[in-house]
Fold:
Amino acid sequence: MGVSGVFITGGAGFIGTSLAERLIARDRVVLFDNLSRNALAGCEFANHPNLTLVTGDVMDGAAVTAAMAGCDRVVHLAAIAGVDTVRKDPVRTMKVSLIGTYNVLEAALANHQKSTRINRLIDFSTSEVFGRYAYKVQEGDVTELGAVGEARWTYAVSKLATEHLTLSYQRQYGLPALSIRPFNIYGPRQVGEGAIHHFVVRAIAGEDLNINNDGAQIHSWCYIDDIVDGILVALDRPEAVGQAFNIGNPRATVTIYHLAQEIRRLASSSSAIRFVVHEEADVELRIPDVRKAERLLGYRPKVELEEGLLRTIQWYRRKR
Ligand SMILES: NC(=O)c1ccc[n+]([C@@H]2O[C@H](COP(=O)([O-])OP(=O)(O)OC[C@H]3O[C@@H](n4cnc5c(N)ncnc54)[C@H](O)[C@@H]3O)[C@@H](O)[C@H]2O)c1
Structure:
């Protein structure tokens, strides 16, 4: 039997469903998710014949191995995503990341060495590995671990460990793996957290937009379609193997205050902007250098911030 298909852990989430939507036209796709979040519910393609949803937890190694059987490509997205959830549950954050990624790598290796040849495995890391000040950071730059005891950094530290683990499986066992570091992704189906999610939902409802401290934090925002483009080429191109890639949109860089104002303007909202004192660690500056992804993958973000925000506002409006 020919073996082909894409196995996506965390596949019912924001990035997973958007990737699945693009893949199902030409591929069999298995989404593996414990449905702690669910962006798939209500998707018009949820019952597509090429799509299978397996409800399961990445902490259950046997379940991961069984569900992965028959797939030759793996995209590992399952994680506790979003700073607020991470702060509330740092233990689960680290467990899902460390144990879950180990299980996914072991399952892929077992399949690779036996029945199914694994042609690609993409592990999802995060731009948080660059810490609080990250100006045009490159993949080879030194990463930061954050202060011990600050719950936010449990996410970055465990993701960094799993990135090392993934690339070690590639070097040591020849698993064709790579890692991607997303820089602030936004867009339709972001059912979890994120500044744009918060601002858009509240702007549409006419509620206050809450900004931490003075809103001078500077971030780059990447529209969902652009990262999906990046994932699709990383699944395909041999040059991607053994690498880490920044995926983001350096052109779409603004302060949080400006972002809130833009969303209010584009949504024709009368929401007030409220500054809230926030004592915990924040990322003050984060802009990626994406030239490595451009060079090796031909990756180029296309969607400008205003266009992406308009599409996002429209989607949340329809959802309401
Ligand atoms: N969205 C971003 O801006 C961003 C930035 C950096 C990194 N990432 C990474 O990208 C990946 C996808 O993020 P997303 O934005 O789609 O988040 P998301 O929360 O929408 O998706 C994550 C999915 O994982 C599932 N999940 C959580 N724990 C699980 C478990 N134990 N077993 C099985 N499934 C589980 C959730 O139900 C959810 O559907 C994550 O690894 C995240 O850390 C995202």
User: Anything to note?
Assistant: The pocket of nicotinamide-adenine-dinucleotide is lined by residues 9-10, 12-16, 33-37, 39, 57-59, 77-79, 81, 96, 100, 124, 126-127, 182, 184-185, 192 (CB under 6 Å). The longest strand covers residues 177-182. The two ends are 45 Å apart (CA to CA).
